């Protein structure tokens, strides 16, 4: 039955998946199984991250599992890897067999409106040589300057003494925010995180007012008079989109990205071709800023860096 399975189109029907829920190997031909197992047994973490659903912790878990238990001998054995279950394994296998089809489906279909506001021509974003990613907290602003090769050029945060104090005096806010942006280098775009706080959550209303105030001032101070037809330089990036990109969402809530960031910093030192390149001085300066004991200290910096990485990676999809 499965020997006539079309190797050029490895996606299998829902009925077939249901019938073989406990027999993954029978869903594919011998040739297809060999291709899948070779990729899973030989690919590095960075190469596995290029496969659908394997970005982040799943690729790490695959490498750890095969290091501990040896190469995968069957497709069924893959679902023993933490975070990989039957349905996700099917999607991973299909993506390995049909990488060209995946690129064709994704080409031009990543809707920028889902993670970037206001609307900007994709070509303008892809031409950017560097960006500054900005994240505001309740008492600080963090920012990361990154180029298109995903090299961290600068990475800082600043305390803002006036934030959420008294009556949110506009002149004090303006002074603090102006001081922060005065240290910004030149960049093609400024990305300001757009939080996902619901107006219906009345307990967080003061925080929402504060964040909207800072956001409006950043847009006003960083925007420059531009000719008609030229793209805006200050953009919102949806916080929830960054969370989904790094598999940090649990329901509607975004979890900490500290573990993801620590791995990026480690890989920058240990790997020849890391996902993100950190200058040695920044690694030394911030290597202890994202431990569990100092999570609040580095939360905004972590988010600013991940937002910059997500921007460039989402543009490549």
TrEMBL record:
- What organism does the UniProt record list as the source? Danio rerio
Q: Name one Pfam family in it.
A: HHH_3
Which cellular compartments is it found in? Mitochondrion matrix, Mitochondrion nucleoid
Annotated SUPFAM superfamilies:
RuvA domain 2-like
Q: What protein name is recorded for this chain?
A: Transcription elongation factor, mitochondrial
Q: Any coiled-coil ranges, and where?
A: none
State the UniProt keywords alphabetically. Elongation factor, Mitochondrion, Mitochondrion nucleoid, Protein biosynthesis, Transcription, Transcription regulation, Transit peptide
Any one annotated GO CC term: mitochondrial nucleoid
Query: What is the gene name?
Result: tefm
What InterPro entries does the entry give? RNaseH_sf (IPR036397), RuvA_2-like (IPR010994), TEFM (IPR039150)
One molecular function GO term is: translation elongation factor activity
The GO annotation for biological process reads: transcription elongation by mitochondrial RNA polymerase
Query: Where is the major localization of this protein?
Result: mitochondrion
What does the protein in this record do?
Answer: Transcription elongation factor which increases mitochondrial RNA polymerase processivity. Regulates transcription of the mitochondrial genome, including genes important for the oxidative phosphorylation machinery.
Q: Which family does it belong to?
A: Belongs to the TEFM family.
